[in-house]
User: Fold these one by one.
Assistant:
Number 1:
Amino acid sequence: MLANHLLRSLNDAPLSSMDELWVNEAERRYQHFKAGMTEAIPEDKIFSQIREELRWPT
């Protein structure tokens, strides 16, 4: 809901169909997290994975 609100607040432009899909996916993932169906990944772990995949220096 927050992502949807933020996207809609950008110049009050209507969301594209792709934007709507991403908002719906974000909401689905958030609901799964709240229901305990998904665990959060710690920030340091996810950023180290991203650096490794992109080969960024630490």
Number 2:
Amino acid sequence: MSSPNPLLEGISDAVGFVGGALLGYWAGKLLGWNIFSSGYDSASIGGILLVGLGGGGGLHLARFWRAKQKDQDTDTSS
């Protein structure tokens, strides 16, 4: 069993989180929800929510991808 590579974990987590957050941001922009608008109106809160959900979802997908890669590595080494 190989030990996890911290660099790969960090980079994949960062790419997943930032990519998901950007997707959430652009989805909010398409809906007309600007997270940078002045005050905290419902559109701003909705945009912030989408960015948070997108970042969390992207992080989850990155970890899922890493787990699949690990499973494939153990299957081929057996």
Number 3:
Amino acid sequence: MTDTEATRKNAKHLLYLMVNEELLRAGDGLDAESLSHVLERHGVSAAEQQPAMDYACEQGWLQKGENGQLQITETGFALD
């Protein structure tokens, strides 16, 4: 698996966890620290987290919200 494929996989996993474990909906968000803990519990290393978050933002799946939260967009929610 290439780095890009791994990053895409981790970004999709991130969305899955936000929707199905954290029960977030479009417009809801998590602060970076909470999101990091969720990802670590599910085997996404610290080194893999930022590229996954950046990729999800670039795809329009996440957006930066108030107080640095990462919010799920309508597009990101529909993807999951």
